[in-house]
Write a structure and sequence with these properties.
This protein has 177 residues and is mostly helical. It has one domain. 80% of the residues lie in helices and 0% in strands. The protein is built from six helices and no strands. α1 packs antiparallel against α6, α2 crosses α4 and α4 packs antiparallel against α5. The chain is globular and about 60 Å long. The chain starts with a helix and ends in a 9-residue tail after the last helix.
Length: 177
């Protein structure tokens, strides 16, 4: 990771931590903001995967997975953005769905990195465990608005701390001979 990338990662993590602390003081407004944010994030990542498929992945072996993931994320994002202020159970289910996708991807990345003897697998595993805890807590307290907001904000703080740790960690430079 370059120095500029490290600085931007730390700035983004500190901003996420500040935003999470701010949202903890307004749980009713925060619920709609989180639901809207998750919908927009899913839409953004869906578009990102679709553009990646169109520019590179269509020529790769297994590239259709990027198309499938992009379509699913884009569809979930548009639907969640349209229903952000509707029933709270639907919004919580979409927050859970977003974290389920994140947990699965983090676990896959962690086990792949561990197989390759990459020390970054621990952070990916920690993020996957955090996503799983968030999913369980949101499903247990699905009738409450305040508990899922606090869970989401605590997870945002947790992820911000993990981002700062990964930005400050030394990375190995691999030279190909």
């Amino acid at each position: 990771m370059s120095k500029a990338r490290r600085v931007w990662t730390i700035i983004g993590a500190v901003t996420a931590i500040q935003g999470a602390v701010f949202l903890m003081f307004m749980p009713i407004i925060a619920f709609e903001a989180i639901a809207m944010g998750v919908g927009m994030m899913l839409t953004f990542y869906g578009i990102k995967y679709l553009l990646y498929y169109l520019t590179h992945a269509q020529h790769m072996v297994g590239g259709k997975w990027f198309l499938l993931i992009g379509l699913i994320l884009f569809d979930m994002g548009i639907f969640a953005t349209a229903l952000y202020n509707q029933a709270q159970a639907i919004a919580i289910i979409y927050v859970v769905g977003a974290h389920l996708v994140g947990a699965v991807l983090n676990y896959i990345r962690a086990f792949g990195n561990k197989k390759d003897n990459n020390p970054g697998w621990k952070i990916d595993l920690a993020q996957g465990i955090g996503n799983t805890v968030q999913i369980v807590l949101c499903l247990v307290f699905i009738n409450s608005v305040i508990i899922p907001v606090y869970c989401y904000c605590v997870y945002a703080i947790y992820t911000g701390i993990l981002m700062i740790i990964s930005a400050c960690k030394k990375t190995a430079i691999v030279y190909v001979q």
